[in-house]
Amino acid sequence: METAVFAVCAVIVILGGLGVIFSRNPVHSALSLVATLFAIAVLFLNLGAQLLAAVQVIVYTGAIVVLILFVMMLLGVDTDEDLDVEPLVGQRAFAAIIALGVVGAVLAVLIVGGHDAVTGARSVTAAVADGYENVYQLGRQLFTTYVFALEVTAGLLTIAVVGAVVLSHRPKDLQPLPEPESMTEQGDEPLTVTTEEGGH
Predict the structure, then answer these.
(1) Is 187 inside any structural domain?
(2) Does residue 6 belong to any structural domain of this protein?
(3) How far apart are CA 166 and CA 159, in angstroms?
(4) Dihedrals phi, psi of 10, to nearest 5 degrees
(5) For residue range 165-184, what is the model confidence (pLDDT) as tens digits?
(6) Residue 69 domain boundaries
(7) How many domains does the chain have?
(8) 198 in a structural domain
(9) Shortest CA distance to 36 belongs to which of 10, 59, 72, 58?
(10) What span, in angstroms and rounded, lies between the C-alpha atoms of 153 and 134?
(11) Mean pLDDT over all residues of the chain?
(12) Is the pLDDT confidence value at 200 over 60?
């Protein structure tokens, strides 16, 4: 059963990734990203990582993708762009170099780590307690050993939210700027234009 779930989710992840890359419509790319992230969450559940699966759905699928869609709708997706024109000179070559570097780093980790790098046999997360789910272990550590740091972080996040609300609040008695007074009301003589015939 686990092998069948892995095979189905792997196909969804690959197809979703290809949809993100090759879809010409940005909204379709974002929806393909949603399918990919959901399939990755199922893979986490298949590995027994319940916490990572929940974070994958709540943070990435529920927040990051929504933010991407919001920015798309804000900027507009009804404009056609020429993919052959590069806004930044050399960006394709730079992206290819970064991609080769990432692939090389992953291959180096797999070669050096071997089987342990894939299975996670050297992970220190299992040192907390054996026989319990990782959600239980993480919650126990957060609310016992690291409870002070957790409360400080919660306070800082609350202060940040309140500060953002205060900064975005506009006063209700906001009045428009007064119009500048004309030069004639200040006692100045009006400007006159003299023509060659002596008229004004």
Answers:
(1) no
(2) yes
(3) 10
(4) -65, -40
(5) 777 666 666 666 666 666 54
(6) 1-77
(7) 2
(8) no
(9) 10
(10) 21
(11) 75
(12) no
* Token duo for residue 127: 């040192």
User: What is the reported pTM?
Assistant: 0.50
pLDDT of residue 11: 92
3-state secondary structure the chain: CHHHHHHHHHHHHHHHHHHHHHCCCHHHHHHHHHHHHHHHHHHHHHCCCHHHHHHHHHHHHHHHHHHHHHHHHHHCCCCCCCCCCCCCCCHHHHHHHHHHHHHHHHHHHHHHHCHHHHHCCCCCHHHCCCCCCHHHHHHHHHCCCCHHHHHHHHHHHHHHHHHHHHHHCCCCCCCCCCCCCCCCCCCCCCCCCCCCCCCC
Per cent of the chain over pLDDT 70 is 66
Beta carbons within 8 Å of 8's beta carbon, 6+ residues apart: none
CA distance 12 to 6: 10
Please count the other Cβ atoms lying within 10 Å of the Cβ belonging to residue 62. 13
Nearest alpha carbon to residue 135 among 67, 62, 63, 44: 44
